[in-house]
Write a structure and sequence with these properties.
The protein is mainly beta and about 260 residues long. The protein has two helices and 13 strands; from the N terminus they run H-E-E-E-H-E-E-E-E-E-E-E-E-E-E. The chain has a single domain (about 15-255), classed as OPCA outer membrane adhesin/invasin (Lipocalin), CATH 2.40.128.100. The longest helix is centred in the N-terminal third of the chain and has 21 residues, at about 15-35.
Length: about 260
Amino acid sequence: MKHSTGKILNIKYRPYFFLGLLAFLFTAQPVLAAEESNDEWKYHGSIYLWASDIHLQDPEGDNDTISFNDILDTLDIAAMGGFGVRKDKFGFQIDAIYMDTTDSDDNTLRLGVTLTDVELAAVILTPMATYRVVDDGQFNLDLLGGVRYLYMDLNVKFDSISDVGDDGSTTDGIIGFRGDVQLNKNWHIPFYYDVGKGDSELTYQAFVGINYKYPSFDLAAGYRYLKFKFDNDEDFGGVLNHLIIQGPMIGAKFWF
């Protein structure tokens, strides 16, 4: 990590508003669905576990990885889920992630400096609008556009120099596509890709998995990859070159 002094940050951020928003969305869905049933609105809410590793690289090329096992050992709180609506070809959904974790494994960097702790709290919100361009029963494809918002509070501790930290947010416009291939009545293969930029130099995300459809919900598993690349002049640019979150995930989508 960058070996210079910086402001020392104590990660105490707790997005109770975020958790409350998720709770409101999930409890409000049945009422909303009933009110719009005549117009054929469809609502869905999802919860999932992303068993991800978090990879960090500083502007000098030093790397640190917080493994999923480390995340489980030091996790303070996490919430992952989403909410969406659809009518005919048009849809809207939001994906939300919050995590607060610490990596305490010693990692020797260049010049013999030892990285002792990495404290990370992050909120990632991705609202998007979708439009279905293919729907033939066997293959569905939506075009999408939206934004990805990242809030991050990062504190890096060393054995022999001052702590380095930064906090702030980035907002990026994204475009992409999503869809699924139906194998039979119950099994299908979902896929997703987006790319964009704005406050960050580049961000992109990809997912592919397998889905089983039950009468009232879908159960899905797959692999998800999310990357942010930062400029030196933006938030986190003096501390991070890129942030990568990747790993398998499993979740359920409920229809209302």
